[in-house]
Design brief:
Blueprint (H helix, E strand, L loop, with lengths): L1 H29 L8 H11 L8 H4 L4 E3 L19 E3 L19 E3 L19 E3 L19 E3 L19 E3 L19 E3 L19 E3 L19 E3 L9 H4 L2 H5 L5 E3 L7 H13 L3 E3 L1
Parallel strand pairs: 1-2, 2-3, 3-4, 4-5, 5-6, 6-7, 7-8, 8-9, 9-10, 10-11
Length: 299
């Protein structure tokens, strides 16, 4: 019995010792020295921290909420993974390829990485607090990692290589979406995005606007340089104010005349239908009526 009691005491002491060592290791690891392999990134971080020399430690980075480093030639983001409380990061114009250091920044709400040559955005899938994501002018073709970002309100993706927009179908909090200058032909997956206020889909291969039929909050639509010939779905979008349909195959613009909200709004409104094969009814009847209602029309 005595031996058993002694063994229990020894075991308890060993557990206490191991726990204490582990706790000490956690503290040491959590405040480890942070290495920035990219000298340009290190220089900017030192400037922001007002720490021109000496080791940069994880504790130095924990209070950083905002990072804005534009056009500094940064290629490696290693080290930013320790900015765990960052809420806004803007890194546009830096030729970064690997976004994995950002994948652990779960408090991030705003991220901008435009003009960076990025192709792989898979590390962003875990950033579910993101509200604004700006990724224009990159090499992105696969946007499936964005499917989990249900808190997104603004998504800026022009000048990429996107064909499939189906990963966006459940991002129902989106208010601003731009997909201009890409390779998109089918926008049916966007039909659920009924909170959209601004939609840019110019310079694609889109023919069918019927998925827009339920976007009753839409104020701005940019859909120039596609192959659109039927704008009937726009007749029920009563909050439309600015519409760009230039360079399509549209002959009949009467659906916009039949849009009572568009016609009667007191806000500034504009319509661009240049470079379309407009029929006589559109040029002789519809356009004069639109102009008479105060809409600025370019044709």
């Amino acid at each position: 019995m005595k031996l058993k009691r002694i063994l229990v005491i020894i075991l308890a002491a060993a557990i206490t010792l191991i726990t204490g060592i582990a706790s000490g290791c956690d503290v040491q690891v959590s405040d480890k020295e942070v290495i920035f392999p990219d000298p340009a990134l290190e220089a900017v971080m030192r400037e922001n921290l007002e720490k021109p020399d000496g080791a940069i430690r994880a504790s130095d980075l924990k209070d950083i909420k905002t990072i804005a480093i534009l056009n500094q030639g940064i290629t490696d983001l290693t080290g930013l993974e320790y900015c765990l409380n960052a809420e806004s990061i803007r890194l546009g114009g830096n030729p970064v390829a690997d976004l994995s250091p950002l994948g652990s920044l779960h408090k991030l709400q705003i991220l901008e990485l435009s003009g960076s040559g990025i192709a792989d955005i898979s590390p962003l899938a875990s950033l579910t607090s993101l509200r604004i994501l700006i990724l224009f002018n990159n090499q992105i073709s696969d946007i499936s990692p964005l499917a989990s970002l249900h808190n997104l309100e603004e998504l800026i993706l022009p000048l990429n290589l996107i064909e499939d927009v189906s990963p966006l179908k459940n991002l129902t909090k989106l208010k601003v979406l731009t997909l201009d200058n890409s390779r998109i032909s089918d926008i049916s997956a966007l039909s659920n995005l009924t909170q959209l206020e601004q939609l840019g889909i110019s310079r694609n291969n889109i023919r069918d606007l019927s998925p827009l039929g339920k976007m009753t909050q839409l104020h701005y639509l940019g859909a120039s340089m596609n192959g659109i010939n039927d704008i009937t779905p726009l007749a029920g979008l009563g909050k439309l104010e600015n519409v760009n349909l230039s360079d399509n195959q549209i002959s009949d613009i009467s659906p916009l005349v039949n849009n009572s909200g568009f016609i009667s709004s007191l806000n500034h409104r504009s319509l661009y239908v240049d470079l379309n094969p407009l029929d006589a009814a559109s040029t002789d009847v519809c356009i004069p009526r639109l102009k008479a209602s105060g809409i600025e029309v370019s044709y």
